[in-house]
Amino acid sequence: MIHVEGKVGTFSVSVQVGSVAGPQYETVEALVDTGATYGVLPASTLRSLGVQPVERYQFELADDRVVEYEVGHARLRLNGRERIVLVVFGPEGVTPLLGATTLELFGLAVDPVHKKLVPVRGLLK
Fold this sequence. Notes:
The chain has helices spanning 43-48, 100-105, and strands at residues 4-7, 10-19, 25-32, 39-42, 53-60, 66-78, 81-90, 97-98, 108-111, 116-119. It is mainly beta. The radius of gyration is 14 Å and the shape is globular.
């Protein structure tokens, strides 16, 4: 079951994050943000779970600044399912985010009226 916490125009979901190899997970409340490409977590959280950076990407922020952060692969549990996803090693204090590609990998879309995630069919057209 997805736990949803309502906010003005947005909502958060409870997800478990862990390394690809390890059995240790941490539960976090992540803001659903379809304007973000990938999921973001504080770098210290990811490193404490054993998630390793694999390269650096450039990102454009809402204020038009361009920054560079490390990215790596993490195991994410959401709504009773698991996926290996690309995550951004964000700065300390960053709000954990679930971005568009993570939602797509889980086959989920945003229902903004009811502030929840809903399953969607994949396309093979």
